[in-house]
Glycoside hydrolase family 2 protein (Friedmanniomyces simplex), 642 residues
Amino acid sequence: MQLGSLWSTDVNESGLSGIQGTNALYSWFATTFDVPSSFTNDRVLLNFGAVDYEATVFVNGQNATFHRGGYFAFTVDITDYLHVSDTNELLVFVHDPTDSDSYVIPIGKQTLHPSHIFYTPCSGIWQSVWIESAPSNYITDLYIAGTADGQVNATVSSSGNSTSQVKVEVVDRNSSTSIATHTGTVNSPFTFSVPSVSPWSPDSPTLYNITVSLGDDEVGSYTGFRTVSRGIINGVQRPLLNGEFIFPFGTLDQGFWPDGIYTPPNREAMVYDLQTLKKVGFNMLRKHIKVETALFYQACDELGLLVFQDMPALRPLQTETFDNCSVATILPDDDQQAEFARQLDLLIVQQRPFTSIFSWIIYNEGWGQITSYYPEFGLTDRVKQLDPTRLVDSTTGWYDHGAGDYSDNHHYANPQCGSPFYSIQSSPYDPTRIGIQGEFGGIGNNVSIDHLWNVQAAIDTINQTYEIDTTLEAWNYRGHRLLGELLDQVAIWSCSGGIWTQTTDVEGEVNGLMTYDRRILRPDVAQWQADISDLYSAAASRTNASTALPSFSGYSVLSPTPYPSEYPESTPSWSPNGFEYSATPPAPFTSTTSETSGASPSAYSTSSSSTFSACVGHVSERIQYASRECVECVCADYISEW
């Protein structure tokens, strides 16, 4: 529903916000709303998908709650602050200390000074905000973990301390037939079994609907039945899905957008990226030091894409200079490390219901990783305690001291996966853990300015990309050769997975499968499908004792496919004209009337008043554990005015 207007300046850096401010250390967001007459239950809940970084929420002038952490959802009961029969005022005060003083916070790749692999920051409310009606004792959290053989571990939490009975019903999505019903005690874990389930996998992403009832409250959700583990196959540690060796191969997926930065223009845009990965042949993605909206993970569940989920990094690669002119890397103190651990808990607890998440990643390339002792061991134990159903990649790249389930190598020029050779920065392969290539590839391809992030600081750092090819023929040939090298390491050594950098270009990085505007898809899809299929075949062949080099098409010298003089452009169904947003200059992409005529009016319109941060996803889509029939969305559409 429409909620008035935003009265703030310099709060959001994105084009979609209508503001494009910078250095938003402090911001105020304001709106008004009425409580719908349909809200006949006892309590009214206010939900935030994510606010970066600290949020203090006021309802009708009263302090309702405070939340810290830019990637995580929070809910506050605002019933006692409301004017039920009158208009209500909602204020949100945001403190976002990006790059500020001594603040060492989970920040990912945001920086006030974007350059090459670090990007424009995102301040304020960047995910959905909505209100909902609930009874006095309502469901606050639902965790259901189903295994491939139909065993279910469940915990249903409520707002009260009751020990009431809660009913869980499992429903077949195709037939709408109830296949299992179980009654347990709220606020306590319980188990039950579901007969004859179809296990979830990338090739068969079967999901089952869930209905949970507690007194007058009912929540709709879903789950998939799958088992993640590790095991030794012919002497090699392997990742297992449903008891079988799976070779996870995907892209580094950063989730940045030219018009919304952290916020995609709509759900279709997110799904387009994921469908493109599936089309090229990938079965996985690594969500790189960002946490997405629930709709993103729901799409991965439905499409069958495994997710390696990063914890957002602490002030990566930043230094401080002391009075004696010495320079040191900024690392967390004890309190900041404790806050990192607390937010890691939030990541696990909030995202663990999603079936597609296969592994948790704690540290990336030593960013924010204390070296005077090894905190990753304790953090790994904590993650395993919160979620024993998944694997943990404690340190992806570089500072690996033996924690977790993976021996993870980063090397762009040549993969070094599960092999006896490694670069100085990396550690040697540890055969007691799973060998994986956590990052490689990163081949660049410069394009015309029409498809680049047209900001000078980004343009100036394009040449820092690891390797830049000037034609798509060369780009695809280099990709073919690197995939062939990885194929050797799968067939001969102990490589068990890989992650190619990356899904899309991001600002000054031009090494994506797609350009930043998603207009150009670089891969020769048939070639990449064949090369990736060879990786899967090589991995499957290693389930027997033979280590002979198989004869795969990937070992032949591929003749590059010639491209026309013009770059081939993809046509995303959700936005055939790309991301042009001329209404809020100086947006990076300019447009003409003819270019934008096909864009969605609801996604790209503007008015004289500023627009609130994009609202990602209709809450009424009943996603995961936060949906009820009586939900009312504060943002009427994916992009709504405040």
